[in-house]
Structure formats: structure tokens, C-alpha cells
Amino acid sequence: MFKKLAFLMTGVLAFAASAQAADSLIDRINNKGTITVGTEGTYAPFTYHDASGKLTGYDVEVTRAVAEKLGVKVEFKETSWDSMMAGLKAGRFDMVANQVALTTPERKATFDKSESYSWSGAMMLVRQEDNSIKTLEDVKGRKAAQTLSSNYGELATKLQAKIVPIDGMAQGLLLIQQKRADLTFNDSLALLDYLKKNPNSGLKTAWEAPTDEKVGAGLIVNKGNEEALAKISAAIVELRNEGTLKQLGEQFFGRDISVK
């Protein structure tokens, strides 16, 4: 009786393991299946909805190009930034495409990043009339509108700013305009895009990271997907060499951002 039960349990576990393996990211890529990608959908010009309501943006279109290169379909799942990495870790999607640089030891221990498809640095915006914040040293004790778990939230915390929690960049910029926050750190490319599109925003650049401090963003996957990540990275390299990334950079930013 016990031997039969043990045999049955072994069979169930083996079947479960086999099913899980068959549903792995590398198998979906090899079998030309569908991969799911977490993204905000509210973080222009990287991931947002255009006037027609279509999800687009630099990261979104790069991901679509990678999927086409791999011969797979891609399904985007929009979610807030603060739950995105947790969602990836929990297996709610296969990858994240949201300008993630993967710079902290904690994230590096849990996730892996593909070949970089963009390079950027931190930038700080303040109100146009505020001349009291010009350097990183001036941030101490000031109200910084930041998403709690982002690279920029970590930077503001390190500089001893008073963190005003937000859901995304747009909310942070609004809080500064409303004088409910003094500053925000975010990606230089996203903020430059905002300033270009909103010349009367009442905001200005107070600080920008130097060129040698730029970091690369890529597609993020959970640890243990080395084979799949290698294929994804190879596709990104091909897209760069073919000029596709340059074309997308010029489309969204006016210049190639795929090279450092």
C-alpha cells in the first residue's frame, strides 16, 4: 500500500516537474510560443499609450523587435512599477521591459539583465524658480517625489531626502508643480522628452549624471534563465548591428541611445 502510494507520488512529482520544464522560457522561445512582458504603460517615451490608445514606446518596440527576431509572440502585461519586479519574481510574466538597469546587489542576486539596448543617467528636475537645489549635496532634507523601489528612489534616499511616495514619473512632476515636493530624480531620457514636449511646464534641470556614470538598461528575467537570456541578448546585438535600435532611438529621442 505504502509502496504504491510512494510510486504514485513520485509519478505526480515527475509529471509536475516535466510540465514546469515544458513551460519554461527557453522552451517557449524554442517552440516559437508566447512570452509575457511586464511594463508600466505610463512611462513615456519608453512605455506608454499613443493617441490611438496603442501601447508603444522605445522599450516596447525594442521588445517587439526582439520577439520578431526570435520568432515568438509577445504579450504585454501593464502594472505599476512598485509591483513589477515582485510580479516577475512571482512568475506573473517572463520578462520586464521598463528601463531597468539592475544596479543594486539585491536585484542582481535575484534577476539577470540582457545585453543593454539603451544607455542613460540620472537627472534631477526642480521648479523653474527654485535656485536652492543645484548639486546632490543640496538634496539633503528636501522633499523628493520618487517611486519607492526604483533606482532613483534609492538615490534620493542615499542623499537623505524626504521621500514623497509616487506611482510614476507623471505624478512626481505634478507634485513638484503643485509645490508638494521639491525635486524628483528620474531617467534623463524620459525627463528630456518631457521637457521637450512641455516647454511651459515650469520645471528645469538642476543636475545630470556625467557621461561616465551612464548605465545600460535591458530586458530583465529571473535567475536560472541563462540559455533564454543568451538568445535574447544575441537578438539585441543583431538589432543593433542591423541599425534597428538606431532607428528606434531616432524615432523616440532624435538620436541613437543604444550605444554608450
From TrEMBL:
<feature type="domain" description="Solute-binding protein family 3/N-terminal">
    <location>
        <begin position="34"/>
        <end position="256"/>
    </location>
</feature>
<protein>
    <submittedName>
        <fullName>Amino acid ABC transporter substrate-binding protein (PAAT family)</fullName>
    </submittedName>
</protein>
<dbReference type="Pfam" id="PF00497">
    <property type="entry name" value="SBP_bac_3"/>
</dbReference>
<dbReference type="InterPro" id="IPR001638">
    <property type="entry name" value="Solute-binding_3/MltF_N"/>
</dbReference>
<comment type="similarity">
    <text>Belongs to the bacterial solute-binding protein 3 family.</text>
</comment>
<dbReference type="GO" id="GO:0030313">
    <property type="term" value="C:cell envelope"/>
</dbReference>
<keyword id="KW-0732">Signal</keyword>
<dbReference type="InterPro" id="IPR018313">
    <property type="entry name" value="SBP_3_CS"/>
</dbReference>
<feature type="signal peptide">
    <location>
        <begin position="1"/>
        <end position="21"/>
    </location>
</feature>
